[in-house]
Design goal:
Blueprint: H1 4-35, E1 65-76, E2 90-100, E3 105-112, E4 118-127, E5 138-147, E6 169-180, E7 185-196, E8 214-225, E9 230-240, E10 256-264, E11 267-274, H2 281-287, E12 298-308
Antiparallel strand pairs: 1-2, 1-12, 2-3, 3-4, 4-5, 5-6, 6-7, 7-8, 8-9, 9-10, 10-11, 11-12
């Protein structure tokens, strides 16, 4: 008996069945691929530290994480060799601790040499940039309060200027809006409101404007990564104040900082130059009276050490 027709028929049937199964599997895979959405993640490490030079960043830390910060400002580099480019003269020093209550909520406390300021702060991340750009920015709110325990200055009649304890307090509030444009470039803008409970009502002789308790500023800051460990950073604040506009009797200038950022394992180290001796916004926004043009540039450094508790 010739079995060839049966063999051919069997091969044909098996081939048809195999093709049908494969087609069903392809249809099933297509359906699964259509139902599977692309993975959307939060953009991380927009900045590597809680501050750039003067400016706060949108960064918070993980819950139960403690960050110890040391920020140092020397004297003017124009002091030359006699002051070792200002390093003999510490214009300001700040020690601070920041603690992550949650991944989005950060609280901090610090102490500065200028005005002996003791400051407390809170930072909350409102939005986080996503990789699909449906949320194109990171947005963080920062509020800081400072009190000075130093001895009150005196009026001409010998009375204390800070006659009430409330006079010693000042406040800074910022909405920090940032975007990480690529793995190498990040930028942020900081609308800022500063309030000082006590000021001397000085007048600008050039335009008749008085100093005000409330100041509105806009800050900008950026970071450009040039290698795995090294980045260039900078920030600038402009304060809308007629009193500070070309005041020949009491010149004020806008704080500008430029520097480099070095990542060293558990540390983030900044070396910078700025015209501001103040470190917290309560100081550098209203009280920067030195100019880059006049050579009033201070060498400084920021060190942050992270502890996982």
């Amino acid at each position: 008996m010739n079995k060839l027709p049966y063999i051919i028929a069997t091969i044909f049937i098996l081939s048809f069945a195999t093709q049908s199964v494969l087609a069903q599997e392809e249809d099933l895979m297509s359906m699964l691929e259509e139902d599977t959405e692309p993975v959307v993640e939060k953009v991380t490490a927009t900045f590597k530290a809680l501050t750039i030079i003067n400016a706060n960043t949108t960064e918070t830390v993980k819950a139960k994480t403690l960050v110890f910060n040391i920020i140092h400002r020397f004297g003017n580099v124009s002091g030359g060799a006699h002051t070792l480019a200002g390093m003999d003269n510490a214009s300001n020093i700040r020690f601070a601790f920041d603690y992550g209550i949650t991944d989005k909520l950060l609280i901090g406390i610090g102490r500065s040499k200028v005005k002996e300021h003791i400051d407390g702060s809170i930072k909350y991340k409102i939005l986080g940039q996503t990789t699909d750009n449906k949320i194109p920015i990171t947005m963080t709110w920062f509020s800081g309060m400072a009190v000075t325990p130093m001895q009150s200055p005196r009026n001409a009649d010998g009375s204390e200027k800070w006659s009430k304890a409330v006079h010693r307090f000042s406040y800074v509030h910022q909405l920090i809006i940032a975007r990480k444009f690529s793995s190498a470039i990040s930028f942020e803008i900081l609308p800022t409101y500063t309030h000082r409970n006590y000021i001397v009502r000085n007048v600008n002789p050039d335009n008749g404007a008085e100093d005000q308790n409330d100041l509105f500023s806009i800050g900008i800051a950026g970071r450009v990564k040039v290698s795995n460990r090294l980045s260039i950073v900078g920030d600038y604040f402009y304060t809308f104040s007629k009193y500070r506009d070309k005041n020949s009797a009491a010149p004020h200038y806008m704080p500008l900082g430029l520097g480099i950022e070095i990542e060293t394992g558990g540390h983030v180290f900044h070396i910078n130059l700025t015209n501001s001796p103040g470190i917290i916004g309560n100081d550098f926004i209203p009280n920067t009276t030195e100019s880059w043009i006049d050579g009033d540039i201070k060498l400084g450094f920021n060190i942050a050490r992270v502890f996982y508790l």
